[in-house]
Request: fold
Amino acid sequence: MPVIVVVGGQWGDEGKGRVVDLLAQKAQVVARYSAGNNAGHTVVNELGEFKLHLVPAGIFYPDKVCVIGNGLVIDPPVLLAEIEELQSRGVSVQGRLFLSDRAQVLMPWHPIIERMDEELRGKAAIETTGRGVGPAFVDKVGRAGVRVADLMDKESLLELLSFLVPYKNATLEKLYGAEPLSTERVHAEYADYGSRLAPFVTDTAALVQEAMGRGDTVLLEGAQGSLLDLDAGTYEYVTSSVPSSLAGGAGIGIGIGPTKIDSVLGVYKAYSTRVGAGPMPTELTDETGTLLREGGPRPEYGATTGRPRRCGWFDAVAARYTARLNGVTAIALTRLDVLDPLPTIKVCTEYQLEGERTDSLPASRGMLARATPIYEELAGWQQDTSATRRFKDLPENARAYVRRIEELLDAPVHLVSVGPERDQAISIKPIL
Ligand code: GDP
Ligand code: IMO
Ligand code: MG
Reply:
């Protein structure tokens, strides 16, 4: 029955895909509510390892309905390739994967603009994923976007592109010195994508509302993490998803009201990672940082770009801040197993900032860059946890670590993940 938001609490890659894949067993509908193929959600199951960029992580159960909501930007060839790959590896999508007719479409100028913007920024580059998703959201807000519904109507698409392509060409040629695009060619290509995507396209808001009316359990899958959110995150080193990467954006990105959401599961990694530029107070550039990146199964490399992730201790100042902003009711703590070999583990509980101690995340980019973490040191457990399935069987110090995170975030940990495989999980309290 419930409607649950699954949101990343840090800088992305917390294991949202893995957690959604696990929870989807008990849901009927899984719906992605934000971003585009800048996201990379890894799922490991009996069919192998999958890196999903647009398709929700419920797709591996043949009886689940999966929805790509209106809050997304979709790149048609990327979505078509993802669908093809899933089908070729034995995952059915027909009749149960649905794409919102109101979702935005990533157009060929978006990656070009992003590349040039990053170049122009020079040292201030965001180090984006380079997929064009940021410029596509800029165009959404700038009322210069193409929506999935437009691809379904060839004539109206031509009318729209007859304005948009020259309009974008002006920017490409005059501002960036890039080659102009041809309206006819863009029209032919995108009309073809429209025909190929047509079997999946529908009013997904109505579909989810109907499912809720039947009493179905619905998971709303977020992308990125709260510290990459435009409002809450470490601006300007954030992603451009509108309305929001936070749980508050879930209803809008799917088309349901805020009163329909029952709970918010915050997914947090047992330490911190970040890909791309921007402040990260607890980053470690020493051998412990390397151990966090390379240790355990599935080392820390971006699921979309393959870039090494910056790693560091758990930042409870930032995590408590995002738990509050999201109204987190339960926590899923992932990658606890990566901490197994460490003799001691640090958690940042406050920042030292201009001679003062603070437990809040400063808004100012300069202040955040100058904040130095104040750590609490906890004893490690130095035992393999990857085969543990009951909380009481975890080493005492591992249990103490989980309990300390609960205290610091003021929210209960319901699930602990000790490996990438579906069954490598410890349920403390039921989520569904
Ligand atoms: P997402 O973007 O939040 O879905 O996360 P990613 O898939 O980008 O990154 C999470 C990575 O951690 C993936 O490689 C997962 O397979 C892996 N993973 C998830 N949970 C665990 C865990 O508990 N332990 C270990 N070792 N790996 C995990
Ligand atoms: P998932 O859903 C981690 C980061 C990029 C860059 C910034 C802006 O897998 O957790 P963008 O391409 O969005 O304009 O890049 O945001 N970023 C992510 N980092 N996980 C993600 O998604 C990310 N999506 C974007 O590295 O710093
Ligand atoms: Mg990811």
About this structure: The pocket of guanosine-5'-diphosphate (ligand 1) is lined by residues 8, 12-18, 40-42, 44, 296-298, 303, 334-335, 337-338, 417-420 (CB under 6 Å). The first helix runs from residue 16 to 23. The longest strand covers residues 344-353.
